[in-house]
Every structure is written in structure tokens, then in C-alpha cells.
């Protein structure tokens, strides 16, 4: 081993949750590498940044090969890269937009896993942390495609953990709720907007804006990621923050009608 510190690769680490995770793990003694589509920006981060586009097979392979040549191993993969679509009715996004969302949010996780697992298997150990969302288990309306992409991450993560645990590799999904980052501000707009939904979109934007005032700090998510990495017997799912824990509890134990009315109330919608 070229480096005695555990080596961590974090996708989408240029800002927000990814950057918070990187800084947290660095402070705890890990050797951290972040990635972004733009690669390194001099002096902007305390950790090295690799150029990597999770939607491009060649880009993924090149970045992973470069890191392995430098460090000799990858102990932890954090799949954080992703984006969302601004709240809107599902029919306002084209099939092309849906494909682009899944290509990053779900297939990006698959590409990174394919690239990293062979090395983890050879070394007989590894942790894969997939950044999901509490919306990966709660059916929130008006973000249907994003919800679907995170449901896919949840199912993939659980199945993958079953497959890899005999190889010394464990997989966990992290489920935050609203988090104070630029994520919502950077949501792309639906590409086939319909005029009859304009007032609804404005209403949803206002509701989300109010919710963000009480959102968790990215450090809350970073703390949970550290817990998942360090756990001797990691769980397959970890909620991050009070709101996510409450929604997970309701999803598991509350009657369907109660969860349904709670979701609609949170968005200030008619029952």
C-alpha cells in the first residue's frame, strides 16, 4: 500500500454535500480525492480534485485508473454526483430530460461501482456510500423523476450489498431531506412546460423556498457518512437529519392515508 491512510473517492465534491463530506473525512484522517466535471481548480479546495464525468464511461475509467496509479487502492467510494429538476408536473419533462437525469443520478452510480469494485474485491475490503434521498423511499409529488432516480439508487444499493458483502465490501445509502446547499438553486427547469401549470409551479417554488429556511447543514449529512464508513456492521440505509428520520418513520409505521395527507400538507396542497 502506497498510503497508510484509507483512500476515499467522492464524486460531485466541488461544493455542497460532497465538499462537506470531503472536508469531514480529511479532518478524520482519510486521504480524500474529489471529482467534478471541471477537475482541479487551483487553491479552491483543501483536497485534490480529479476531472470526472459520471455520464461518460471513458472519463470514469480514466479517473479511477489515475487514482489507483497514484495511491494503489480505493477504500471508500462516495457516489454523490447528481442533479434535480425544479418542482413541476411530471408530464412537463421530456423523455430526453428523464434519460439525462437517470444517466447521472442512477447510471452514474452504476458506472462508478463497475470501475471501483474490481480493485476493492482484489484488496478484500471496501465501502460504497451512495447518496440517495429520503425521497428515495417517500413518494413526493411534483418531483416524480427525481424520486424515481433515487428509488433506483435505493434498490440497487440494497441488492449490491447482498452481492458484495462476502467479498468484504459493504454498501449503504444515505437519505437526507432538505439540505442548505446550492442543489435546489441549480435544479434544471422542466423542458416542456405547460401554461396550465404555471401557478402551481410558482406555488411549489414558494413552499420549497420556505422549507429551505429550516434545512439541515451539509455537515449533518457528512457526519452520517462518517458513521456509515466506520460502522463495523453498517446498515443499508441511514437517514440524515430530523426531517428525514421523521419521514422514514412515517413511511415504515404510519397508515398509508396518514403519510399521504402529511405529504400533501407539507406542500400546502388540497387533500
From TrEMBL:
The keyword 4Fe-4S does not apply. InterPro entries: NAD(P)-bd_dom_sf, SDR_fam, SDR_oxidoreductase. GO terms for molecular function: oxidoreductase activity. Keywords: Oxidoreductase. Gene3D superfamilies: NAD(P)-binding Rossmann-like Domain. CDD domains: 17beta-HSD-like_SDR_c. It comes from the Bacteria. Pfam families: adh_short (PF00106). Belongs to the short-chain dehydrogenases/reductases (SDR) family. This is Short-chain dehydrogenase/reductase.
Amino acid at each position: 500500500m502506497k498510503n497508510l491512510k484509507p483512500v476515499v473517492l467522492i464524486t460531485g465534491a466541488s461544493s455542497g454535500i460532497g465538499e462537506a463530506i470531503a472536508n469531514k473525512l480529511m479532518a478524520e484522517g482519510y486521504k480524500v480525492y474529489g471529482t467534478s466535471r471541471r477537475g482541479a481548480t487551483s487553491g479552491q479546495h483543501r483536497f485534490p480534485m480529479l476531472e470526472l464525468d459520471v455520464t461518460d464511461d471513458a472519463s470514469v475509467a480514466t479517473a479511477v485508473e489515475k487514482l489507483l496509479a497514484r495511491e494503489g487502492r480505493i477504500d471508500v467510494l462516495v457516489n454523490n454526483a447528481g442533479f434535480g429538476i425544479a418542482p413541476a408536473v411530471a408530464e412537463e419533462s421530456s423523455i430526453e430530460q428523464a434519460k439525462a437525469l437517470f444517466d447521472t443520478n442512477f447510471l452514474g452510480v452504476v458506472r462508478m461501482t463497475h470501475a471501483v469494485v474490481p480493485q476493492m474485491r482484489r484488496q478484500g475490503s471496501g465501502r460504497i456510500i451512495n447518496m440517495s434521498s429520503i425521497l428515495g423511499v417517500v413518494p413526493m409529488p411534483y418531483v416524480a423523476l427525481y424520486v424515481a432516480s433515487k428509488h433506483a439508487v435505493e434498490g440497487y444499493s440494497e441488492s449490491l450489498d447482498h452481492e458484495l458483502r462476502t467479498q468484504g465490501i459493504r454498501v449503504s445509502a444515505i437519505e437526507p431531506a432538505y439540505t442548505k446547499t446550492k442543489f435546489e438553486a441549480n435544479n434544471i427547469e422542466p423542458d416542456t412546460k405547460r401554461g396550465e401549470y404555471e401557478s402551481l409551479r410558482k406555488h411549489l417554488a414558494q413552499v420549497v423556498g420556505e422549507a429551505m429556511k429550516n434545512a439541515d447543514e451539509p455537515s449533518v449529512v457528512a457526519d452520517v457518512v462518517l458513521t456509515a464508513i466506520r460502522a463495523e456492521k453498517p446498515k443499508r440505509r441511514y437517514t440524515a437529519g430530523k426531517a428525514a428520520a421523521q419521514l422514514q418513520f412515517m413511511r415504515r409505521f404510519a397508515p398509508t392515508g396518514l403519510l399521504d395527507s402529511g405529504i400533501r400538507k407539507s406542500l400546502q396542497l388540497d387533500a
